Amino acid sequence: MFINKDQNFMKAKLLTCLITLFFMATITRSQVVQTVPHVDLKKYAGKWYEIASYPNRFQKGCHCTTATYSLSDKGYVIVENRCNRDSINGKLSYIQGKAFIVKNSENAKLKVQFFWPFRGDYWIIDLARDYSYAVVSDPSKKYLWILNRKPKMNDNTFQNILAKLKEKGFDLAKLKLTIQEI
Length: 182
What we know:
Mean pLDDT: 87
Number of domains: 2
Structural class: alpha+beta
CATH topology of the largest domain: Lipocalin
Helix content: 10-25%
Radius of gyration: 21 Å
Order of helices and strands: HHEEEEEEEEHE
CATH architecture of the largest domain: Beta Barrel
Distance between the termini: 80 Å
């Protein structure tokens, strides 16, 4: 059997494509957003201060951003987000919503709804053992929030969180610190 140059070229091209696809699949698999194994919602409930986040249109101009979570007797989580618009002394902005637990997620994945019928992914991807900080994202990595129980976070803790986020493939250049009043 004779093989001409065109056949060798096509085989090399096919092999290159297969190798490229293999490496892309490997990179994609390693960058999949993973949640924490379990969240105790009673411990998670309460007030959280936003330390940093990816900017998004619905929080434009927000300062002193907080989120308060409480458990409803109907099986969902009540979400109350607050911020001061355009400055730390700006007009208070407030919105209340509901978060529904995703089945078989050990409470680490929720669907948050502020406007019916729209729901967004809220995945807890890092959480301190003592529930002093949490990191929240979504499967697409479009959103990211670093939350803390106090308005200021210990710098070592913050740097450790950033290192873990970098390992997980998050773009730290997009992260914006949130101004909190003290």
